[in-house]
């Protein structure tokens, strides 16, 4: 397993935790977009670009735009009750650390230490994945445009 996957898996875990723990539904939805986009990167990394493209276009794109649109139309945020479950959080952290350590040490023999020049990586990215990057750019632009329009309408109504 290369360091690429470890970084992506770390971002997936962090964005999943943020999506679950965020008090604002908007930030939870943004973390959800990051989570789904990182899952698409895993698909690209295991050389399944069609599945990665579907993940980006349908899940990270369409479904998340619908969720964000619904959240912005409702305009409410979820207030989590204040709980004192410190023990559960500590136990979750311990399980996460132990699981990561076991995964790391069981996969340490499979690391590949090949280092590719940056130019080769850039060429491969542009040749294989530039189309999906353009789609992702349009998706992000649509989300920002929609958010701006909704916020402008709310300010005018006030």
How many beta-strand elements?
Answer: 0
The CATH topology annotation reads as Four Helix Bundle (Hemerythrin (Met), subunit A)
Largest sheet: none
Parts with pLDDT < 50 across at least 5 consecutive residues: none
Order of helices and strands: HHHHH
The CATH class is identified as Mainly Alpha
- The number of helical runs is 5
The CATH architecture can be named as Up-down Bundle
* Overall mean pLDDT: 76
By helix and strand content, what is the structural category? mainly alpha
Spatial extent as radius of gyration: 19 Å
Number of domains: 1
Shape, per Cα inertia axes: flat
Range of strand content: under 5%
Instruction: Please give the alpha-carbon distance between the first and last residues.
Output: 54 Å
Q: What portion of residues is helical?
A: over 70%
List its salient traits:
158 residues; mainly alpha; Four Helix Bundle (Hemerythrin (Met), subunit A); 5 helices; 81% helix; 0% strand
Descriptive notes:
Pfam families: Oxidored_q3. One of its GO terms (cellular component) is plasma membrane. Its EC number is 7.1.1.-. Belongs to the complex I subunit 6 family. It is a single chain. The model has no long low-confidence stretch (mean pLDDT 76). This protein has helices at residues 3-21, 25-45, 49-74, 86-107, 118-157. Helix content is 81%, strand content 0%. The termini are far apart. It has a single domain (3-157), classed as Four Helix Bundle (Hemerythrin (Met), subunit A), CATH 1.20.120. With 158 residues, it is mainly α.
